Amino acid sequence: MILGPQAPPVVERLGWGLCFRLDLPPTRVARWAWLADTHVSADPTANYHGVRPGAQLERFVKEVRASRPSGVLVNGDLAWKSGELGDYSRLADLLQPLRGRCPLVLVPGNHDRRANMLAQLADMPRRDPGRIAAVVDQPPFRLVALDSVSVEGDVGGEIGGDQLEWLDGLLARTQPRPTLVFVHHPGESTSEGCRDFQDLQAIARSHRTVRAIITAHDHEFAVAQAGGHFLIALPALGFPFGPATQCGWIEACCSAEGARLYPRGGLSGPVRSLFWEEGTRAFLDSRTR
User: Across the beta sheet with 131-138, what order do the strands follow?
Assistant: First the structure.
């Protein structure tokens, strides 16, 4: 779903669910904030091994706002455990400093409930909407968010044939431009991943405009390459799974040539430079901006 500060997004009803669409003005370089696994609870004392997700988000929202992003995307597991209305009410309060400044793209995860998300965050009727996808066109590139929640409450996920067919058609009929595809579940996971992730990758290989698939779910930041596109796993913002992982968010500066990913918040490590020109794609690490 998309929450916009200016003109509201277009909401298209499809056979498998809803698609939110938003067009942004062209830009040479767009600065986006990529967040994931916020796990906000209505209870401000809720914690995982002493880490309170609500306090984490409140702190990091200040950093995100200071970066002056052209958009913010949260890649799933917005809510604490079972997507209660109160969780989304508190999430809305915590995101309010950003909502009036830039579009917010919110992707469902396995701890979310779509009807509650829409009712509390977008003031839409509280009924089952089916899947929720989103498309943001910001020339020279495009963001597409898919819904990998097959059965609400299940840990693992699946995008589904109807949604994959829609994505294939979208990439075929729209103007070719670098496309970043977001989905909560990765193909391989420490818990349970996306059962049809290979089908998504097959579509990415057939449409060379897909430059990266960005996932979450495992609470750990990683970048790799596979089949001509990048695989990016986002860190959790709400809490780490263990002492070896770090919480934070990614500042992504995207252009027609590629993207630079800057670890923010509690993350340490080098800046990642991704280049996706045909024939010269490479993955580089850089410790300077």
Answer: 10-14, 17-23, 131-138, 141-145, 179-182, 210-215, 229-233, 222-226
**Nearest-angstrom CA–CA distance, 156 and 152:** 10
| pTM of the complete model | 0.95
**Residue 227 Cα to chain centre, angstroms:** 21
- Alpha helices (H) along the chain: 53-66, 85-99, 114-121, 161-173, 197-206
If pLDDT is split at 50, 70 and 90, which confidence band does 242 have?
confident
Three-state SS for 234? Answer: coil
**pLDDT tens digits, one per residue of 94-146:** 999 999 899 999 999 999 999 999 999 999 988 899 999 999 999 999 999 99
pLDDT tier for residue 244 given thresholds of 50, 70 and 90: confident
Residues 53, 159, 193, 268, Cα dihedral to 10°: -50
CATH 3.60.21.10 fits domain 2-286? yes
Region for residue 167 given its phi and psi (left: phi exceeds 0; alpha: psi -120 to 50; beta: otherwise) = alpha
Query: H or E segment at 233?
Result: strand 229-233
Token pair listed for 235: 């860190």
Alpha carbon separation from 37 to 24, 79, 116, 165, 226 (Å, rounded): 26, 8, 17, 27, 24
Distance CA 122, CA 124 (A): 5
Contact 128, 166 (CB under 8 A): no
Q: What are phi and psi of 247, to 5 degrees?
A: -95, 155
H or E stretch including 281?
Answer: none
Rounded CA-CA distance 259/137 in Å is 16
Nearest to 91 by CA among 127, 54, 131, 66: 54
Select the more confidently predicted residue: 6 or 10.
10
Q: Which residues pair with 248 in a beta bridge?
A: 265
